[in-house]
Amino acid sequence: MPKEATGREVVTGFFDSFAAGNMDAVFGALAPDIEYTVNSRNTVTREAIPWSTTFRGTAEVQAFFARLMANFDVLAFRVDQLIADGADVAAFGYFQYRAKPTGLTCETDWCARFRVENGWIRTYHFFEDSYAIARAFRRSGHWELAVDGGHQVVPGEPLRGGRA
User: How many CA atoms lie within 13 A of 125 on its CB side?
Assistant: First the structure.
């Protein structure tokens, strides 16, 4: 990416490359010392979704994408809006994936926060519905919640091949 490219142009190129399946260009848009966070740094989220963490450097991000593609079939992915303020860019969109191990689909709106420096994506923080993702991978059991002074059970044993 040319060093004079705006934050909006860099992020647009990143998503265009992803949509075209050009992973070399996707990784080429990332700074060598990229900080790439999925969902949160929260260890509780990581218990349900192991790749919900921060990846540092392009090698770790490449390994993350390989793991993601080994576990998901992308059914739909779109960017609905980009908002740029200089080097800071926010993106909003929608995706639908199928969890390969269970055959369940999950869908969610998503947003991402980027920081672009010298034509490179320096930081990328992706937010999604982590519950929908975790549920698509759940094989059995139920979740029990203490909510509003009561007890709520989230059903177990999702339907195979259906929607999580």
Answer: 7
What is the four-CA torsion angle of 121, 127, 132, 138, rounded to 10 degrees? Answer: 60
Spatial separation of the C-alpha atoms in residues 117 and 123, rounded to whole Å? 9
User: Long-range pairs for 127-131 at CB < 8 Å and ≥24 separation?
Assistant: 127/39, 128/38, 128/39, 128/95, 130/39, 130/40, 130/45, 130/48, 130/49, 130/52
pTM of the model: 0.82
pLDDT in tens, 8-59: 999 999 999 999 999 999 999 999 999 999 986 666 666 677 778 899 999 9
Give all domains of the chain, ordered by start, each with its CATH number.
7-154 (3.10.450.50)
- pLDDT, tens digit, for every residue of 97-127? 999 988 999 999 999 999 999 999 999 999 9
Amino acid in the structure at residue 12:
T
